[in-house]
Amino acid sequence: MNIKSLLTSSLSLLLVAAVFVACDDSTSPTLTEPILSAPASQNLLAGTTAELTFGVNVSGGYASATVSAENGSATITSEPAVGASSGNVVVSYTSTNAGAGSVTLTVRDADGLSGNATAVISVAAEETTIRVTDNITSDTTWETGKTYILGGRIVVEAGSNLTIEPGVVVKGEAGTGANATALIVARNGTINANGTAIAPIIFTSVADEITPEQIASGDVTSPNLEPDINGLWGGVIVLGNAPISASTSPIQIEGIPASDTNGLYGGDDDADNSGTIRYISIRHGGTNIGEGNEINGLTLGGVGSGTVIEMVEIVANQDDGIEWFGGNVDIDGIISWNVGDDGLDTDQDWIGTASNFIIISPQGSGFELDGPEGDLNRGCHTFRNGILYAGPDMGAAVDWDNNTNAGIEDLYLFGFTTSYRASDSFSPIQSYGGDGNCESSGWEYTLTEGGAAADELFTGVPSSILSEVTANGNSVGPNKADFNWTWAFQSGALDEIGL
């Protein structure tokens, strides 16, 4: 082969090789891993949940995703379809404790390549003290473990429900007159304050240092206030549509300024339902809103029989412990301790029963039982299975009006101090029997050595209903152990008076 032929053959081989290489390079594309974008940093309260949205671009086709979390838990709630080249992955994150948190999302494509991004979360401690300044106009829950401060007269308005969970502490700020703090359930509003024997609900003053944590530990005593300090805030008022004996109906409840129409009560619904109240303790209330006009510990105005009230403790209220104004509601389980006026007070033709009660050292009457106003008289209201400890400052043990429609059954009376005696101007039992239409029976009593005799203490009471017993020998009255959730029990006050 000559030189010219050799050069021609070599050039042909080089051209073939170049074409082959060029064709081979065109069949090998470059692979790209998924690209993710994390949401902006988030601020959460401990124990709360947020939805986090990650953007993803997956040139190799979306295949799957996994998620991990710090200081919380996370789950994927939404993701693109398999094979998609882009979309969003939504992650639900629930924080645990105060501090730093994060969520890391990893996405894989069809070729097994992966990419990730991390969302940064700042977790703050859950707010546990909440100041309430506005009326409750929609269904609201006050939660276990929290303290709620009443910044004024707070009303559960018509059509709204307030749920208070076990162990909640409600504290009223100081204030008098029109600025008195109180919790009011208006007509057609409802309250469901369902404490328990191991986690009662406490209503008290902001001056009281009691906390939900203390209650959760089993201690319901005040750490800094004595059980005779009163008038530091208002109280609890429940108003309904049940009948009342008054010149007009509805009318304004005492303790609330006439300018506030949420204070109206009364109607024609015997079975009206204002909700449920169980295992509550109301303390240090009864602030004065005007001359001789204080708020009771618990005020019930026109409250119907559809309402359930069980286990109520009133401690150191400046006015009455509990006062009923008409209505039909019953109460089972009461302690009224160290109140500045009457232990239990009835007005305006209340028709119901109070059972299993203990009244300790009232400064007014043990019972103030006022007769109906006007023509309405629907029958009798009844106190059944109770204890009255007189103490040093009590006025009348039982004060009926001549037209009072009330009977007292199974009552134990004791604790009459040596200075507690009848006189020409005073009788411990006033207008016994009221209008005479309601039965009283089963009164037991223990006299105090050196004190008044039975005929001085029980003027006008038929001997047939009276029985003298030794101290602690009573066969009537509630079981002390049923009140182990109260301040009166845990402080030893019930033991001190001999129960």
What does this entry look like structurally?
The protein has 499 residues and is mostly beta strands. The protein folds into 2 domains: 35-124, Immunoglobulin-like, CATH 2.60.40.10; 129-496. It is built from 5 helices and 36 strands. It has a 15-stranded parallel beta sheet that branches. Strand 22 (288-290) and strand 23 (293-294) form a beta hairpin.
Based on the model shown, name its key terms.
2 domains, 9-stranded parallel β-sheet, 499 residues, 15-stranded parallel β-sheet, elongated, 8% helix, Immunoglobulin-like, disordered N terminus, mainly beta, 36 strands, 5 helices
Overall 3D geometry? elongated
Computed over alpha carbons, the radius of gyration is 37 Å
Tally of DSSP helical segments: 5
From the helix content, strand content and strand pairing, which structural class follows?
mainly beta
Q: Kindly, what is the distance between the CA atoms of the first and last residues, rounded to a whole number of angstroms?
A: 134 Å
What fraction of the residues are assigned to beta strands by DSSP? Answer: 35-45%
Total DSSP E strands: 36
Largest sheet: 15 strands, parallel
Average pLDDT taken over every residue: 92
Query: Helix coverage percent of residues?
Result: under 10%
Low-confidence stretches: 1-26
Number of spatially distinct domains: 2
Architecture blueprint of SSEs:
Layout: H1 3-25, E1 35-37, E2 42-45, E3 49-57, E4 62-70, E5 72-78, E6 86-95, E7 99-109, E8 114-124, E9 129-132, E10 140-142, E11 147-150, E12 153-156, E13 161-164, E14 169-172, E15 182-185, E16 190-194, E17 201-205, H2 212-216, E18 236-239, E19 251-252, E20 264-265, E21 275-283, E22 288-290, E23 293-294, E24 298-301, E25 308-315, E26 322-325, E27 331-337, E28 344-347, E29 353-360, E30 367-369, E31 381-391, E32 398-400, E33 406-416, E34 429-430, E35 441-445, H3 454-457, E36 466-468, H4 487-490, H5 493-496
Parallel strand pairs: 2-8, 9-11, 10-13, 11-14, 12-15, 13-16, 14-17, 15-18, 16-21, 17-21, 18-24, 21-25, 24-26, 25-27, 26-28, 27-29, 28-30, 29-31, 30-32, 31-33, 32-34, 33-35, 35-36
Antiparallel strand pairs: 1-3, 3-6, 4-7, 5-6, 7-8, 19-20, 22-23
